[in-house]
Specification:
With 229 residues, this protein is of the alpha/beta class. Helices cover 29% and strands 16% of the residues. The protein is built from six helices and seven strands; from the N terminus they run E-E-H-E-H-E-H-E-H-E-H-E-H. Helix 3 (79-91) crosses helix 4 (118-126).
């Protein structure tokens, strides 16, 4: 409240009752705070899917566990536990926040990248609303993959929630890779459309894909081998 200004839009698109998935783009290590602020102001405390390593950070990890956030164990046998926990949270009426890109965007102009299928899996399993949320401004406080914030002058956090992504025609179909990719593509397109409105620009015709550029799925793509995070 003290360090940032706020431009909250589209809160009327957030469901009044029942669980749902909120899917923001990912610009900065700062944006989980601003995204959570947006949802709390709308009356929906979020339950995040977050990297398991963050839960082991002193103090921060204790706060996350106390707030019933959901750790994700990537590329392990425990990865399915996060999915089950997210489904249970939605079914109990909670708002689950999922970053569908899975990491900070690597797009040179900070547009949303090709998404991962986690949000789509939860949505298809629960038939819950998926609310696309675009954000712009957190990267001015903390640029991607940097650790030194720029708090002054106060930056404006622009948020815009769109209407639920249309997925009903995909319900009750066999959950194949093609189905998940289609659902994910619709989610990413909806997020991008909201961000285009905020920025007053058009996103590139082709979405950035880390795999095509030979980049790892997570972590700082500019870090040299052997360097710390």
């Amino acid at each position: 409240m003290v360090l940032t200004k706020r431009d909250w839009r589209g809160m009327e698109n957030l469901p009044m009752t029942g669980g749902f998935v909120a899917t923001p783009n990912h610009l900065s290590y700062f944006d989980p705070l601003s995204f959570a602020h947006f949802l709390v102001d709308a009356g929906h405390p979020p339950f995040f899917l977050g990297k398991e390593g963050v839960f082991r950070v002193p103090i921060v990890g204790a706060i996350l566990r106390g707030a019933e956030q959901i750790p994700v164990y990537r590329n392990t046998g425990q990865a399915a536990d996060a999915f089950r926990a997210a489904v249970a949270a939605v079914e109990s009426g909670k708002c689950v926040g999922v970053y569908p890109e899975g990491t900070l965007t690597r797009d040179p102009e900070l547009w949303p990248m090709v998404g991962k299928t986690g949000a789509a899996r939860i949505a298809l399993a629960t038939k819950c609303p998926v609310i696309p949320v675009a954000q712009w401004g957190p990267q001015e406080v903390l640029a991607p993959y940097t650790k030194r914030p720029r708090l002054l002058p106060r930056k404006t956090m622009h948020f815009r929630a769109g209407p639920p992504v249309e997925l009903s025609d995909l319900y009750d179909q066999p959950v194949t890779g093609a189905l998940l990719r289609e659902a994910t593509a619709r989610i990413m397109a909806a997020i991008t459309a909201e961000l285009e409105t905020i920025r007053g620009e058009h996103a590139p015709a082709e979405r950035f894909d880390s795999r095509k550029h030979g980049l790892p799925d997570t972590g700082n793509p500019h870090r040299k081998q052997g360097e710390g995070a």
